[in-house]
Amino acid sequence: MKKAWSAKYRRWEGEGVGVWARRLSIARYGLKLCLSGKIIKIFLVLAGAQALILSGVFFFYGQLVAPESALLDWLERLGGEQVRTMFSALTSWALLYPEICVDGIYRIMFYLLSFSGPFLSMIIVALFVHRLIANDLASNAIVIYNSKALTRWDYLIGKFTIVSSILSVVWIFPVVVSWLLGNLLSPDWSFFYHSFPSLIRGVVLGVIAVVSLSCLALLVSSLAKKTGAAVAFWILGWISLSVVASVASFAHPAFDYVSPTQAIYSLSAGIFRLLDLVMDAQGMLPFFGSFFGRMSDGMDPSDLPIDNGEVFLPLLALGAYCVISIAVVSRRIRA
Amino acid sequence: MPESFVIETRGLLKSYGTQTVLNEVDLRLPAGAIGLLGPNGAGKSTFIKCLLQLEEKNSGEVKLLGKDIDRFGRETRKRIGYAPEQDCHIPGMVGCEYVTYCGELSGMPFEAARQRAHEMLDFVGMGQERYRKVDTYSTGMKQRIKIAQALVHDPDLVFLDEPTNGLDPKGQALILELIERIWSESGISVVLSSHLLHDVDRICDRIVIIAQGQIVAHDTLAALKERRRPEAEVVISENKDSLMRLFEEKDWSCSVMNNGNVKVVHGERSLNPLIEVMRDAGISPLEVKESPNALSELFLQALETGNGKTSA
């Protein structure tokens, strides 16, 4: 102790790092803190497992349309000539209409994936939302951040990076990884090209969802002065907005987008535009034409049980949430 | 060569609603150990917070280390350390991790910050406690780690807000010794905010007294002490009455203090005439202290002046 106390002060003459390194330090320490629980890791593994499931689906589909794949041989042995004919047709369609048969499959799968996103996001964010800003406000650590070589925007960017990195595992990671794996395992690498539009749609939806939900998470975390309150605010906010939206939508359908979940679902439908896909399939592929014809008792697209979804209003709602969140959070984190 | 100032403020105004906390503060402070004195609620902490942009000022200019904080706030704070009055650790972090993190936030690379964190924890006298969570620290340890995080990035100016708060006398002495070493060993300017005169008197060579949001006195400690009435405290075991008579004969007002010592206002520039008078009379005091409570009296006088100013 005596020796430690008599330690001399030595000046530091090293080279400093830039502001982005400081922001990343906030993100790195924050991620370490947020991911310290076991339950959150389980949910993140579940979210990541979606990538494997999708990759498996894409792999099997790729094998089905490959002329000489082992899977096709096995199915043909199992089902005989009828199966052979059906899959030969599928292979031909895939070659003739890749925008329907390849891109369409990716589009449908990524669209289905978007249904799990809001639920997983709500659970995962609830597990760490109190560790974002509420912790710093409750412990006065915000004073330390503000007294260092940082502005409140640097702090916000650091915190935003934490949430967005975690939510990317739910929204963007499965899309990108399954697209990569699915195409790497596909019989024809032209699938990379044909499925690229679906990747873009999936990533666009993922980015919008990640950004808007991250802003909301920061807002909720900054409103709570006690760490426990942040979790309660997040869950109650999520549920109450859904209830309010569903009640208010009776007055006007646009009120449905008060709920971030509904806004994301609608945006997802608007981005993937499955009705357009079905219409194209109807027109190009006789098999699908008759199939959908039977489903809708006619050829009128409005009779089909799917729609293209709204883009503008949900995007406006999510954008408004982002603006409000940034405005409130930036005020709250002033020391 | 013009004198460089570590702190310069011009017309610094801060108010909360109708209450003015800092009233057009003009101040220029050169490098050194600076004591910011004032009673509780005088505006010391707000003054520091305005300098560091932790509080938004209403108007006025502030320059730290020669740079305008409105234009170069982030760059300036890179060269400044701050140990706030209240606890401000990040829950769940162990001591050395916390100081390393603070180093990184101040712009140090991770490896350098980690090495430097250990150096600073050695400097503030923390041993194996550094591997414990900060939440479990005693008040003294928390004060030390606050100083370590303020110094980790090797600033040129460090603000310490009430660093001896809540400490026992031994803890206070250790922290004061540490602060003294910051300026004397490294040349880092220290601004020590305190309402404890003893803390400031022991460490600082320049004093700023702030009251009701105004600077009521600002000078070097020596100059401020000179401004006081020349008085002394004579510690004597016998011949107290003779001594009192002797002083009265010289027209020096004197009184016996509660501790039994004799306080005398001698009106001379030094203690030499006083000592000569006692020597000629054959009185041998045990000790003669020059202006023993000068800072305390000066503080009270400044506060009175401040009150007068504000009421006027």
UniProtKB/TrEMBL annotation, chain A:
Protein name: ABC transporter permease subunit
Superkingdom field: Bacteria
Keywords for the protein's UniProt record, in alphabetical order: Membrane, Transmembrane, Transmembrane helix
Transmembrane spans: 42-62, 108-134, 155-179, 199-219, 231-251, 311-329
Automatic annotation (TrEMBL), chain B:
SUPFAM superfamilies referenced in this protein's UniProt entry, alphabetically: P-loop containing nucleoside triphosphate hydrolases
Pfam families assigned: ABC_tran
InterPro entries attached to this UniProt entry: AAA+_ATPase, ABC_transporter-like_ATP-bd, P-loop_NTPase
CDD domains, A to Z: ABC_DR_subfamily_A
Top-level taxonomic group: Bacteria
Protein family according to the UniProt entry: Belongs to the ABC transporter superfamily.
Protein name per Swiss-Prot or TrEMBL: ABC transporter ATP-binding protein
Native source species: Pelagicoccus mobilis
The organism's taxonomic lineage, starting at the top: Bacteria, Pseudomonadati, Verrucomicrobiota, Opitutia, Puniceicoccales
